[in-house]
Queue: 3 jobs
Job 1
Amino acid sequence: MQAARDKGIDWRRWRDLFAARQDRPLPDPFAPEPALAELPGSLARSLAIFQLGESGGGTVVGQARHSAIRGIDRDFAEAMALFVAEEHHHAELLACAVRMLGGELVRKNWTARLFVFGRRLMGLRLKVMVLLAAEVVGICYYRLIASRLPDSRLKSVLLDLARDEATHLEFHCAFLRTQAGSRWRRFVFRVAWRTLMQAAGAVVLIDHRHALIDLGIPFETVRRRWSSIGRRAEWKVCRASPTGDDSQPFYFPVASRETADEPLTDDACCETLSPLPGGCTS
Ligand SMILES: [Fe+2]
Ligand SMILES: [Fe+2]
């Protein structure tokens, strides 16, 4: 248990952070909003797929509890359990959103099955890397969808989800940083991470293409945004000092100009995440 503290990651902070927000109430069923009446049906289908993806994750808790790898402790395992519970809270919020939009929840989806299948084959390190990729996709997707919605409960829920995913991104980066102590390990991480991000990006574009097209979100914008956030995550794992300020979680504000009435810009991600060395262009 002392090992994690010696390496500068005090997992109690993460446990306490997730514990402090675990009692957030579920909203009443979302009332239909006239402003959202014209949204395409493909959006409900797309959110239903994300709802399914937010519903899993239980096996990683058991692995965290029983893993003997260095750099983690009982507090990490408890934080992981609370993180999974928070993802389940997201699933419940998205279920409310899907029903409000008149859509139906899905029980099976090929990308969700692929995601779960991959995770079950993996050890804790690779599994957390897959979870990190899901956070990048979630931040990117929820914010882009929200940017195309009028002010509404759905929009604020999606922005709240994106904020949570940013915290999760920090949590996973903190863990992976403890596992990337040597140059060789960082090289392996970079290769695996970039490959995973490419694959995850292609899968999400294919699976959610109808909603993206119907909402007028260019694929290139999606790609550039998750590339920027993905590079930021890679930098945090490979370059940051485990004991420096970079280990502190951040909470990004919503960029006020990212509204449905204004064009999506590629640098919007840099407004919300800490500056990336080398700028924001991909
Ligand atoms: Fe989530
Ligand atoms: Fe998340």
Job 2
Amino acid sequence: MVKRRHASGKSTRACAALVCAMLAATLSAVPASAAAPTSHVVTIENMQFNPPTLTVKRGDRIVWINKDLFPHTVTGNTHAFDSRSIAANASWSYAPAKAGSYPYGCTFHPTMHGALTVQ
Ligand SMILES: [Cu+2]
């Protein structure tokens, strides 16, 4: 991955710059190909993934946003993906390339479960 500086002259706001940058990249960097990928948002709040189940297409991007005051992870049960720790008010995104069913959870809180289906 090549890290690029902000190319635009847009003002950099003080709001959680990293999160904003990630979201902006997620929402604006989608190539205008024939089958444009869709972005999906899963909110992590009150120790729950919401929505708990989500069906997407290959190449779609899912953004998990942690709205709790403590960290969580988004970790596939088979470790097909693993966010590692997502801090409070931070987010993590993932674009699955392979179809399949991916139950996942939070390694910090074993009661937290979600499921991702990729078509
Ligand atoms: Cu958690």
Job 3
Amino acid sequence: MIATHLHNDTVVNVAQLLKARVGAVRTVTVHLDDLALDQDLEARNLEAGLKFTRIASGILVSGEVTVTSPQVCARCLTEFEGTYVESFEAEYWPSIDVFTGLPLPEPTDDEIFVIDENHQLDLREILRQVAILAQPIRPVCGPDCPGFQSLLPDSEDIADARLAVLQALLDDRAD
Ligand SMILES: [Zn+2]
């Protein structure tokens, strides 16, 4: 099995794998020091352990991404660095036939990625998407979180709900 390691790079030439029989596998590991996830969101030390499998339509990329990113604890508001793991699977289709050089139809499903005309498969966008998915909705700094806000769970929500009821009453009277 061919193994490839990418360091601060996301592009793999897959011409050989596209020429291989369906079911052929290649392993790819990636390390990125930094990856911009969004305008103000950055991930560090992204590690990906991936399997590229030749499928009839192209290449199936599957595996696991581990990523570290700055977080603010949802309970105590402490800033910390969290490390998260996310698995994924994505299909890549060739844009030209590797044997004939003829153009192939573009995928109509926008979840399918395209391999460029030089048979270069770029992992950057899928790694960015998976790293965003890996981000917790409510990050917690750790088992030692003082969590003083957790003593009053959703107290703000309750207060908002009460205010809403009060506001509705006041509105009724105004009518
Ligand atoms: Zn905390």
